[in-house]
Amino acid sequence: MTITVAQAAMRQTAKTATLALVASETPELARLTAHAQTLRLRRRQPIAIAPDTVWIVRSGIIAAEHGATGSERTMVEVHYPGDIIAAPPASLAAMMTYTSMAPSDVWRLTANAFNAAMAGDAEVASYVLQRLNLQRARTQLHISMLAALSSEQRVAALLLQAAGHLGTAHGGSVSFEMPLSRTEVAEYLALNADTLSRIMSRFVREGVLARSSRTQLTVRDIDALKAHCPMSDAVMALHSAR
Amino acid sequence: MTITVAQAAMRQTAKTATLALVASETPELARLTAHAQTLRLRRRQPIAIAPDTVWIVRSGIIAAEHGATGSERTMVEVHYPGDIIAAPPASLAAMMTYTSMAPSDVWRLTANAFNAAMAGDAEVASYVLQRLNLQRARTQLHISMLAALSSEQRVAALLLQAAGHLGTAHGGSVSFEMPLSRTEVAEYLALNADTLSRIMSRFVREGVLARSSRTQLTVRDIDALKAHCPMSDAVMALHSAR
DNA sequence: CGTTCGTTTGAAAATATTCAAGAATCGTGG
DNA sequence: CCACGATTCTTGAATATTTTCAAACGAACG
Lengths: 242, 242
Description:
The structure is a homodimer.
Chain A: H1 5-11, H2 14-25, H3 27-30, E1 37-41, E2 46-47, E3 53-59, E4 62-66, E5 74-79, E6 84-86, H4 90-93, E7 96-100, E8 104-110, H5 111-120, H6 122-148, H7 151-166, E9 168-170, E10 173-177, H8 182-189, H9 193-206, E11 209-211, E12 216-219, H10 222-227, H11 232-238
Antiparallel strand pairs in A: 1-8, 2-7, 3-6, 3-8, 4-5, 4-7, 9-10, 10-12, 11-12
The structure holds a DNA duplex.
């Protein structure tokens, strides 16, 4: 089934506005839709990793995880709308899982179609490289976070990231629904879930953070949070919804 | 100064064999040389990061580091021959350093020339994406190492990586010259240099590793080393000189 | 040949994890 | 709508791991 943006527009009205908006903001991407198949993923739905395939996140959140299910699992990367995901090399693919962490729309292309689109259009090529470079920068920052920050600083960094991608500001404070469970956040931050819980509680006690439910968070004082995280400027620069 | 592979071959005989070999193995890369400038870097020489620039490592080792000089410094990535490096986004570039860890040859291109080469040639585009994907896989594995492995396991993983890229085998054991100092290895593994030293000494005591000098290492028992590192298979698959 | 820097090693201290128990939340079926 | 069971989350105390600090050693370099 091949679905173009125009066809998708005819099927859904609510979603159309967003799709069209994103497409008009990044016309380069729209040119990739010719042979793209749209996947609609529900929460926690895994994506089957096929070799020589490329996915483009249009909405929602896709997590890339590595390792055996259970104890030693790592959330290697978190993908947001606009991100381009290529199937990992075979030697890694067996240990990797891609899962939708929120209801998500994803375009699926064959690597051939994707390559052809790049080769045929200099603007697409330029756009794709720039996007991959942004994703690389985020991954590098992720490494820096794990390597250089204490657990408290890492949690602060994560909250800044989530606020940047998902938050809505109400004068000074930023609210968002955290799509990751405590365990998943812990896997992303290379932290024990117990330790993470302790740190979150401490932030609440300090008044930096408020919880209206398990997943509904409000950062009450962004500056105080930034003060907890040495590389907050880079984190916010690379993780803003635009 | 523009240097093609053929011209480089006329200048140096010792190096030529390698360059020509690599170029013949990856003809896609050779097509990128048209507007490439060759940089010859000495040990510990930094690369000036200019925006909209792309580097391709031809020989040697380039380290990408993040953070302030001194205490909280992280070696985010290590680049080997064939790797493609794009200038990081401005928000990260200020905190990043690229340094040659061994005498290295690097091609420098403008992002425009690089994009044009991809757009003009489907095989180049395909090759570049595949290479970037390999580098992404290595970076993801790096994250997994930091997140999921104990310090001893991380050191084992690093030794496997170095053996794969730089080692020469003599029946069972593998020797190589480690281009990174203890401090630098510690920065790569997110480890304290003291802790690293302790672990290396333990490996020597166990007979897994031998040191003929500070930088000259021999892995006496690859299998024993693999037994120390849970994801040794993936590490070796992604870090082999081919 | 002395100075400096990187490395090694031990003991003390900090940090994070494990284990265990209890509390809160979620989903399901009545 | 509520009750129940299962899951996820929180928290404290004990434990393990890693870092810090300090001192001594070794190699590299002028």
